[in-house]
Fold these 2 entries.
Entry 1:
Amino acid sequence: MKVAIGLLHHPIYDRQKKVVATNITNLDVHDIARAARVYGIERYYLIHPMDDQLMFVSRILEHWRIGDGSKFNPMRKTSLTMVHTAKSLEEAIKDWGGKPWLVATHARTLEGVPAISFRELRAKLEENKESDERLFLLFGTGFGLTEEVMKGCTYLLEPIRGASQDDYRHLSVRSAVSICLDRLLGPW
């Protein structure tokens, strides 16, 4: 089974639950690409509707893929090979091809979206390892994916739970991606 990940920057909630577009950060480009490379992800999409944000990503990629950065740090160049941009989730899915299972991640569950545990999704990945099926794992920025986006998904992956006494669950997206990829694709 082929796996792609998407980092959605719109539509996203802010802390007042208003729908907004968040900025793409340099750290998200690099760190998530590196995690994706470690776990054999086929493509990593940065999804944003604004041209200036996509141009920002293009400048980063150009520097590390063919500019001075490619000579300075060839390992970084390698990790950025699967990074793509798209103006919308639909555009990213169309670019990747096929009809993937779309699995959303979120810090909370949502009624009306079938939930799937890490264990169940990992079993499905292993069961379909040699198939042509595709999984598109979707992450949000800000205060998470909108309910509308999540309701359009095949599954909602169980929330990552830590060990805090107050059930604090506001991880950076970079940390969440790494934890999810390890739980789903790690060699343990």
Note: The helical segments are 26-38, 51-65, 68-72, 74-79, 89-96, 118-127, 147-151, 173-185.
Entry 2:
Amino acid sequence: MEIFNYSFDKIEPQRGDLLISEPFLADPNFVRTVILLCEHNEDGSFGFVLNKPAIVTLGHLLDKVPNRTDTVFVGGPVQQNTLQFVHRKPDIIDGGTEIIKDLYWGGNFDQIITMLDNNLIAESDIKFFVGYSGWSAGQLNNEIELNSWIISRNVNAEQIFDADVESLWKEVLKKMGGKYKIVSNFPVDPRLN
């Protein structure tokens, strides 16, 4: 009988990767999360949790667009008093930083408010986050060595904006195939299996 190898591929993370939490990660901020890695360099790393909706909508957070019901996501435990965004509309949003092809972080916020107020940008083209996930220099690499994170490099903008949030963790792992497909079926609590 073969025992399942609970070791994940150790690759150097890079901007645009997805970080998938290992199935039994105990940190409540990251249980079954998928994080879009927006930056990774010698100074540290940061990204946004893609599958953790907040309990408030965009209209609750921004007085200038009270009727917007866009979902806001908890991007992570760091600086939850900030609002950030990723989008796929560089043709109408100035100043964003390209993460991967057709996916940008940030941009002209006043321009965003005007577009939101006039319904010129769809919720399917922009995601908002309160807070972010951050790591100091070397910290993320250490966590990867400890099998806390699985890295997916097959990322595209459609996956970020069009995927079902509820099943994102499982679907990303299934798409990776092999042992990752097996991991996608692990129960949340193995004692209940």
Note: The beta strands are 18-21, 34-41, 44-49, 53-57, 71-74, 78-87, 97-100, 103-105, 126-136, 149-152.
